[in-house]
Structures are given as C-alpha cells and as structure tokens.
Specification:
The protein has 307 residues and is α/β, with parallel strands linked by helices. It has a single domain (2-173, 202-230, 277-291), classed as NAD(P)-binding Rossmann-like Domain (Rossmann fold, 3-Layer(aba) Sandwich), CATH 3.40.50. Helix content is 37%, strand content 18%. Strands 4-3-2-1-5-6-8-12 form an eight-stranded mixed sheet, sandwiched between helices. The two termini are 34 Å apart.
C-alpha cells in the first residue's frame, strides 16, 4: 500500500512507520515546514511539506495513495491549558483536519481508507459506567475537542473513503507518551496513587496501538469510531501498585486531587482524575487479536525495552 502519514515524527508515528516499512509499504510523511529538514526516521520514506495551520499542502503527492493515517496534533499534556494552549490544541486537530480532508477531497483519486486518532477523552469522567463506542460524549473541553475532531475526520466518507477513528487510551511506551512521566516520581521514591485512586484507567502498549492501526487499515469491516484500548482497564491504585512493583519502588505518597488541580488546573480533571472504564467493543467484534492485554506484563516489557 501507499500510505500517507501525518504526525510521523511523534512517538506513535515513528513506531508505525518503522513497522509499515518493514512490511514493504510505501510511506509518504506529511511534515510541518520546520520539520522538513529533520532526519527522516527511515531512509525510504518520502517527506512532503504540509502546513496544517495555513492549510498549505502539496496534494499532488497524495494522488493515488491508498490510505491516510492521520496522527497529527499538539500534545494534550504538553502544557497547562491556558486560552492560547487550548487554541493550539483545537487548531492542530480540528482546523488541520478540515484543511487536510478538504485537500484530499479535491483529488481525482483520493485515499480509500482513512485511519485517524482520537481519544477516550471523548467520554469525559464517567465513574463506574462501562463505556463502548455507543456511549454518549462528555461535557468538558476535551470531550468537545474530540467530538469536533472526529466530525472533521468523518468528512472523508463524502469522497468514498472508509473512515476509522481510533479513540486511544493511555499509550504505554518506553520513550514518549505518559509512562516515563508517570514513572519519574516512583523512581525518586515519591510515587503513589492519584486522587482517590478509584478512577478507571484504560490503556494499551505502543505495540498494540501500531497493531490496531494496521488492523484498521486492512479490515474493511471496521468503520467509524473504535475504542483503542485493551479489554482490561484498571483502577489508578492498581496501576500505581503494579508500576511501583515493576520499578522495585514504594507507592507510599498519594497525591491529593486538590494538589493536582492546583498544579495543573483543568488538565488534572481531564487527564489524571477522570474515571474511564472503556471497552474495545468494535475491535473485538471485528476480530482484532490483542498483543498484550496484561498490564503487569505490558509495563515490564516497556521497561525492558527502555533498558
């Protein structure tokens, strides 16, 4: 397949391209102007200039591509959610996706498959509720961001593409993502549960994330939103206990919810304290085989790769 990839310099995009090229797919990386001169993560991948804010894109490079994997977007956890930061999160997702899908729609031969990232932030804080793709969206900033992002992505269906929106949970990886930051206080001997510790966390490894993208590209029976998580969510207290055990460190210093809110503001309630018990119903129904659904084994594997 000839596959366009946005967000190709991120930790997920890098891992995805490494895997796809080993399988002999032809990759076209959509890169921001300031990234064009960076060393590509492979020597074979073609790099095409794409300015997601200005909407500038060399669409001819996308002609006759079989698929788009759209992973671009400013980091959700990259800074406190000021007004300007929220604007960046919106622009890098909603407006960038609008420009990109619009450019592809004008091609004579646009991609027939679009696999795009979204997040379980779509659901908001839901307590003990078991969440599937049929569950309603939440009412906070992150929920609205995911809804609008998915709506722009779904426009790809207007030119006949099969569109899959993967609502990713917490992606565990040795380099990048949330886990290195979560592990740091434990390595310093000051780790512990967050808030009450009763909130549900829905997770997957980076290898699982790559596997789900590959599955979505190849499986014609999968379309629309799909929860990209393992079928085994855990409570935060259990997650921190397993993390501490893997690192051979104590978990004796819980962080109160008020302290997280004081330090991080609105972001604490959206990313660290919400309870999201999410199930990968569509992936299971369409035959996806999970690579690593056991959290203890997954965390141990991640840190072995980091060593």
């Amino acid at each position: 397949m000839r596959i366009l990839v946005s967000g190709s310099t991120g930790f997920l995009g890098t891992s995805l391209i490494d895997t796809l090229e080993r399988e002999s797919h032809a990759i076209v990386r959509l890169v921001r102007p300031e990234s064009v001169q960076r060393k590509a993560n492979t020597t074979r991948a073609q790099a095409v200039r794409w300015d997601p804010v200005a909407g500038q894109f060399d669409a001819t490079a996308a002609e006759r591509a079989d698929a788009l994997v759209h992973l671009a977007g400013a980091s959700i956890s990259g800074g406190r959610w000021s007004v300007s930061r929220k604007n960046l999160l919106r622009t890098s997702r909603i407006e960038a996706t609008r420009h990109l899908i619009g450019a592809l729609s004008r091609l004579r031969y646009p991609p027939r498959v679009i696999v795009a990232s979204s997040g379980i932030g779509y659901y908001g804080d839901r307590g003990e509720e078991i969440l599937t793709e049929e569950s309603s969206s939440g009412g906070d900033f992150l929920s609205a961001l995911c809804r609008e992002w998915e709506a722009e992505t779904a426009r790809g269906a207007e030119f006949g593409a099969r569109v899959v929106m993967l609502r990713f949970g917490i992606v565990l990886a040795a380099h990048g993502g949330a886990l290195p930051l979560m592990a740091l206080p434990f390595k310093l001997g000051a780790g512990g549960r967050l808030g009450s510790g009763r909130q549900w966390m829905s997770w997957l490894t980076i290898g699982e994330a790559v596997g789900m993208i590959r599955f979505a590209l190849a499986n014609p029976g999968l379309a629309g939103p799909a929860n990209a998580v393992t079928p085994n969510p855990v409570r935060n207290a259990d997650f921190t206990r397993i993390l501490a055990k893997t690192l051979h460190r104590p978990a004796l210093f819980p962080v109160p919810a008020f302290a997280l809110r004081l330090a991080l503001g609105e972001m604490a309630d959206a990313l660290l304290l919400p309870s999201q018990r999410v199930m990968p119903s569509k992936l299971e129904q369409t035959g996806y085989q999970f690579i690593q659904p056991d959290l203890a084994m997954a965390i141990a594997e991640v840190f072995r790769k980091q060593a």
